[in-house]
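Dear colleague,

As promised, here are the two records you asked about, laid out in our usual form so they can be pasted straight into your sheet.

NAME FIELD: protein one
SEQUENCE, THEN STRUCTURE:
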Amino acid sequence: MASETLLARISDYANRPDPYPLYAELREAGPVVRQADGSCLIGTYHEIAALLHDPRMSAEPRSRTDSSSEETRRPPFLRLDDPEHHRLRTLTMRPFGPPHSPRRVDAMRGEIAHITGELIEALRDREQIDVVDDFAYPLPITVICRLMGVPREDEALFQGWTDVIVASADIGPDEDTTERDKAGLQARQEMGRYLVDLAEQRRGRPTGDMLSDFINEPDPALRLTVEELAETTILLFIAGHETTVNLITNGVLTLLRRPEELDRLRREPGLLPRAVEELLRYEPPVHMRERIPLTDIDVAGTTIPEGTSVILALASGSRDPKRFHEPDRFDPTRPDNEHFGFGSGIHLCYGAPLARIEAENALGALLPHLGTARLVQDPPPYRQNAMLRGPRHLPIHL
């Protein structure tokens, strides 16, 4: 019976600070663990990897094919299947440069370092800061605004819209969602209208930013529709922002809990890229993803019927001892670190190069200031969301 309630227990806010013992229980229970609500929970590395690459597993919400659903808003392309997903992902990736060569992101390295430095400078005389509100939260918003070509005087608008949208998705089980849902929808609409209008101003007048590239796509067959432009640019702000905030904050929390590793990184800053990869495995920003089989499928001898909700516990897979040596140990020199921190398969996070650069810059800039820092509260307060797991606040004494 305990295994049939694992998903509910993992989702229980009381377990948000440390869900990893539950993930160990999940792996022990078997590759496929049926839940009381009819869903299936999978937490072993090799089974998750296979399913993320299986074209029979759909990323689309069930409501897309459920005529009784009230959901009418088109999902972003990360929740679409091929061929729609491939078309929109390809279009969206074009401004980043050729495949496997994210030239625009690489060109942003200097700008990201500058933005990071400005945020650090603003904290210089503070005795206590909130890593989330004062640093990890504003960094990715500012970076994405610069990539998109949002005028600097309007960047504050996006922080406000993002605050509302994130809050609408981070509601406790007993809270009334009506007002926050309405506010979140309004913020999405306002953000979408702003970005579409800004892009239209650049039609025929390229300015070298991503919005300009989207609206001036030379091939008419490849251009985004107005709806696709709005939804895709909103996705860049929300999905890219939330995961980066969690990655940076989880990183600071992990290092403050392990002063020996913090000291090592201060002495050997060249280890930072590998440390970020280990953070993506050890304390990932995304813990679970849902998939729906389009036909009956067999997983490790268990048949999962078509249409079943399958929850892939990515964070559990990244700590599977059958794949990683001493998986519960944080090791910034870990070799062969093929984690699920950015997912895998066709829905691999396409903002991963940007998130890596932001995290490396953020942690590298913070390291000199963390040597005598201490946590004000451990564990800190976490966000309600079990899938996108991270502290809501992380106050530290400097």
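NAME FIELD: protein two
SEQUENCE, THEN STRUCTURE:
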Amino acid sequence: MTETLHSELPVQRSTALDPPARLGELRATEPISRLRYPDGHEGWLVTSHELARAVLADRRLSNRAELQHSPIRVGGQAVPIPPPAKPGMFLNMDGTEHARYRKLLTGQFTVRRMNQLIPRIEQIVAEHLAATRAQGPGVDLVEAFALPVPSMVICELLGVPYEEREAFQRDTREGFSLDNDFAEVMAAFDRIEQYVADLVARKRETPGDDMLTGLIETGELTDEEVANMGLLLLIAGHETTANMIGIGTLALLENPDQLAALRADPSLIDNAVEELLRYLSIIQIGPVRVALEDLELGGVRIRAGDNITLSISAANRDPERFPDPDRLDLRRPAAGHVAFGHGVHQCLGQQLARIEMRVAYHALLREFPDLRLAVPVSEVPMRVDMGIYGVHSLPVDF
């Protein structure tokens, strides 16, 4: 295998719903290829499904923040290497440290407990669909439905007052923007961190029936740890699912045969969610892993300290794993996709996200049998400027 050094991560898309074509070209010729990072680090890019799963499952590869070089620029500039993760920021930890925090949360996200939330999620969805109809044709489905539904769900789960959502939603948008200066990005995340820290202090004074209170009452965590765990859950709990509901609706509207199949057979909904997750793969930057020792991967020698960036969208469009991968097929056996990751860092909230998407898509299509775009697809503003892909807005008629 050749080791041509490619200049930075391909991010330029030619269509709204497909990943950058360059990723597919690399997957076909160099499923693990040399990649120059914006700060000059020479690491690797993985684009195949098999190698992506191998990387995510390999304990010799670290997720520690202080070892990572960013594969993308923010505000046109290389991103400095971050400091070690703060207490409770388990996403960027390894080993026993990561396992300790994750274990405290695992019981909160069991399939059984998530299923108990279904009636409340159905109620939230119904209320927002009624409000969407009241606004009339031309409504922005993101603002009216796709964003507020998961935001309200995660707020209730964590014990975040929903009326306080606007500030952290604004700061989340600023924090994930690739156009903002790095200082602006960090300032946005600092504001969210301070908000959650203040909220934890309030919870200690006035406990509730929510996840933040539950974490405090374990007696095993400092307030800083609880706040940082809550911060991760709050951001992930509304940002990713909201974008999947929005761009998933666009994908269905742009594939009328698949939309018709789902309308004709609502029992397809579970598989439809998995296929939409595979097809869209909204995590368009990373994840990144770092070699803790010399090792071999895909026939190449990885040196200790080398960064490996995974392309989730390329892995989920790998024809070796998913035949005819660029076609949306709601009947496809889509199990095995890596939209939620793989291995010990696999998304904790994936069952909640699946339930929210199933309920949202099913109710949306039932409530609006004539749902259609209100503008040409070329006028739908895509989130090409954000770390998490999707649609900024989705004007629809019904």
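A couple of things worth noting about protein two: The mean pLDDT is 94. Residues 5-397 form a domain with the Cytochrome p450 fold (CATH 1.10.630.10).

Best,
R.
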